[in-house]
Backbone:
């Protein structure tokens, strides 16, 4: 079997992990993760990912309300704190994963090396998105704070950046779970 190309594995284009990175999930499939006895670290990981999905959906909802005729000051008051918290938590989560958990996983399960490489590359790609979101959020905040005429343009740009980031983030969360949840559960995990 030929190796999938880097392009096919890029976060922006892939539709899931290639089969050779899914052997852990085959051994411990998703439908069993909800059963009692899931490793606590794995359960916590799923909970964190759930909170990022919820956060993204919450911000998407705020933007939709504004696009449907909502007031820009309401959007500003609700979206800016939500965005700050999202950026901070997601950045912190990725730092811990790439800095601590992934190196441990490489040692515990050398066979998944290419999968961890892929997840690390995802983090780099998402980091670029977070930077764009931060800059767009700041521009929107400054425009509203100074009563600038282009505040709606800045809000629209931030909304577009949130739209653009959603699918890659959700793709990453799901693919990461397919590797790390069974790995932690099956192989054990030293803190
Ligand atoms: Fe991650
Ligand atoms: Fe994660």
Residues:
């Amino acid at each position: 079997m030929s190796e999938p190309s880097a392009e096919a594995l890029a976060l922006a284009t892939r539709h899931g992990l290639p089969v050779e990175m899914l052997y852990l999930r085959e051994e411990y499939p998703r439908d069993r993760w909800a059963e009692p006895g899931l490793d606590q670290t794995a359960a916590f990981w799923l909970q964190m990912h759930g909170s990022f999905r919820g956060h993204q959906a919450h911000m998407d909802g705020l933007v939709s309300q504004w696009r449907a005729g909502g007031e820009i000051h309401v959007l500003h008051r609700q979206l800016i704190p939500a965005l700050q918290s999202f950026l901070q938590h997601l950045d912190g989560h990725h730092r811990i994963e790439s800095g601590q958990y992934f190196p441990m996983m490489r040692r515990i399960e050398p066979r998944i090396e290419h999968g961890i490489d892929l997840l690390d590359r995802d983090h780099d790609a998402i980091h670029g998105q977070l930077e764009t979101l931060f800059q767009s959020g700041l521009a929107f905040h400054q425009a509203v704070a100074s009563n600038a005429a282009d505040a709606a343009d800045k809000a629209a740009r931030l909304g577009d950046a949130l739209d653009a980031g959603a699918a890659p983030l959700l793709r990453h969360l799901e693919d990461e779970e397919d590797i790390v949840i069974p790995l932690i559960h099956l192989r054990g995990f030293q803190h």
